[in-house]
Fold:
Amino acid sequence: MTSKQMDLVIRNARIFDGTGAAAIDGDLAVAGDRIAAIGPSLDCQGHEEIDADGKALAPGFIDAHTHDDRIVLADPSMTCKVSQGVTTVVTGNCGVSIAPVEIDFRPPGPLDLICPDPSDFFASFTDYFAALEASPPSVNVIAQAGHASLRVAVMDTFDRPARDTEIEKMRALLRQALRDGAAGFSTGLYYPPANAAPTEEIEALAMVVNEEGGFHSTHMRDEADGVVDSLNETFRIGRTADIPVIVSHHKCVGLANHGRSAETLKVIDAARANQPIGLDVYPYVASSTILRKERLELSSQIIVTWSDAVEGLEGRDIEDIAREMGLSIEETVDAISPAGAIYFMMDEKDVRAIMSYPPTMIGSDGLPHDRHPHPRLWGTFPRVLGHYCREEKLFPLETAIHKMTGLTARTFGLKDRGILGEGAFADLVLFDPDEVIDIASFDAPQRPAAGILRVAVNGQTVWTEQGAHDARPGRVLRGGSEVRSH
Ligand code: ZN
Ligand code: CU
Structure:
């Protein structure tokens, strides 16, 4: 009897299934876009056979928090992500999404982080997904509709609550977005285009998510002194609409709030007893977004990532720029805006405590269009695996992997992804647990990590140690089908 023919067989791997269970030694076989078998010494033959030599094989990583809405079209190789082992990205975070928006002016920040040019937006998710499916990227995409994008689409000024007629328009746009396949609804209440929105405005929109199915994620109103109030606002929205909520990039910013993760994690833990709450974190003490005066006081150092007003500032410390221009720091912000920046504003102990908290997922929050991006764009996942897991021993490897795979798939309701099992999609990463590490740094942020040996998406290889492959097997994972509604 001849053994079964498979497309790809990876032999002698330490297999981590993504559930958080310890690894088993064995082989994994892929037929088409699915995992056909897992076990010791599989009796089958692959068109392609790989000897893993005892290296770690895991489900492809799911980046729980991205701003990859436009880069998946602009640079479908997605080298910044596949080089880390990422096979799926969650887009539309912090209230900012590429659809449904039809405007003819430069959008206010932070929408300009993804689409400085109004023609880059899509009028509907149907149009956006059609573009993605006509020209697929290497990774899978789960998209959210953003509150700030809805506001910019229907309001003429943003420094006020939406009127009833505007709320109705936003509800209709959000309903259509969810029906078109957006999987969730995000807010960025911290940011100017959304900050004047009262909780009731968000609740009115969250009710649409209740009716259509999905989740709500939020860059909260306040991650500094008011962080606990903001957590409570987030939980209230989740309870009112009876939907799962996700606290994005949880952190406690500003010197005065360092150490407060002890308090916030207790508050989150207590609330989790009564309602579904998820959270994500990136493994750095510096944040990054548009350049904002509010952040000056809270930061010990600020690096400019881009400026559309003054050329050649990317990668430079704002204090040096101010000195050269003969301006105060605040005047410098005005002079070089619109611009982006990296802010050193968190406490290492808080980052570790939040990352170690069992429900916390890993998300990069990378900004792929920044000229000198925060290194999290290229380094997040290998940094958790190599630095925090192997070197700092924050948690075992199976836990680190779970935070990037099975936990994330469960939190977002992803079917047949984030786990290794017969019949699951063949999103895979093979890596060397002794070598994996981030190479991207604040000085040189666009460098692929070390130790990511091979990455496959829907059964097709997109990355090997030699670099990115030409395959573009990524799919749109629509809410309600590929992504289960709640
Ligand atoms: Zn954010
Ligand atoms: Cu974000």
